[in-house]
UniProtKB/TrEMBL annotation:
Catalytic activity reported: [phosphatase 2A protein]-C-terminal L-leucine + S-adenosyl-L-methionine = [phosphatase 2A protein]-C-terminal L-leucine methyl ester + S-adenosyl-L-homocysteine
Similarity comment: family membership: Belongs to the methyltransferase superfamily. LCMT family.
Native organism taxonomy: Eukaryota, Metazoa, Chordata, Craniata, Vertebrata
Biological process according to GO: methylation; regulation of signal transduction
Residues that, per the record, bind S-adenosyl-L-methionine: 71, 96, 164-165, 191
Pfam families: LCM (PF04072)
Protein name: Leucine carboxyl methyltransferase 1
Function: Methylates the carboxyl group of the C-terminal leucine residue of protein phosphatase 2A catalytic subunits to form alpha-leucine ester residues.
GO terms assigned for molecular function: protein C-terminal leucine carboxyl O-methyltransferase activity
Amino acid sequence: MAASLRRPSFTTCSSPTDTDDEGVRGTCEDASICKRFAVSIGYWQDPYIQHLVRLSKERKAPEINRGYFARVHGVSQLTKAFLRKTECNCQILNLGAGMDTTFWMLKDEDLLPRKYFEIDFPMIPHPLKLQSLPDQFLLKLPSLLAFTDGHMLDSTRYAIIGADLRDIADLEEKLKKCNMSTQLPTLLIAECVLVYMTPEQSANLLKWAANSFEAAMFINYEQVNMGDRFGQIMIENLRRRQCDLAGVETCKSLESQRERLLSSGWESASAIDMMEVYSRLPRAEVIRIEALEFLDEMELLEQLMQHYCLCWATKGGSELGR
């Protein structure tokens, strides 16, 4: 067990591409901070995020908190449904994982897949999770087998990989080094990831995912309905922070989101906006979270939720997405 608690030393490096992507990495930190704040006031339970993400001194708006609750709930429900249908005899690839804590939460619920992979930019400090978490949490980690370099960690059930999702050959090579299987049913999760890639780059990733596994499901959470004034304001706000939505043209509508998945080789695809997700939340949970803080304008929440969507696609077994 001592070996599994050894805290690794991770290196960093810089490159022109790293500098270009700084704005995108900033959105990863922003999302983590928003989740941390929502957890701190009781929207959902996550005992791990407090060790990974600082608590913001700035209070987040109620519509932001409710939006993150719907996002976390929606992705979690689809993930758990996939795990139960495959009886956990599967693998998960979390693309653009950042400081996500899903692996640890699934382990607490005894819902771990055969292997869980986290992939993000090499410069995202997600490997530092193992340095940030207290020892009592690390005791839950299956024995570590190898720290292959400064941007990759591999164990029997959990791998952390630093890779650029736009470089498919490098991504695939690193995944295979960590014993990714093309035979196992595979769930791929991307939350606000594809939109930062050009349509060609995201299509390449989606096609690779559809063609690499015998049975698979892809969950995508990101913007939608971006052609109206509210969407344009969102785009302008991000541009002021040197963050360009390179793939925004694929986010025109729910239909364009479905079509990109089908045209990339997926056999079935569904897409709903986050207001629809919110309307499907368990009534008891809605009552509970709406009692946490006062929301002045419901219209603002609706506008925000109508500009994000949850999409999922399957191949080799449409029942995986039900």
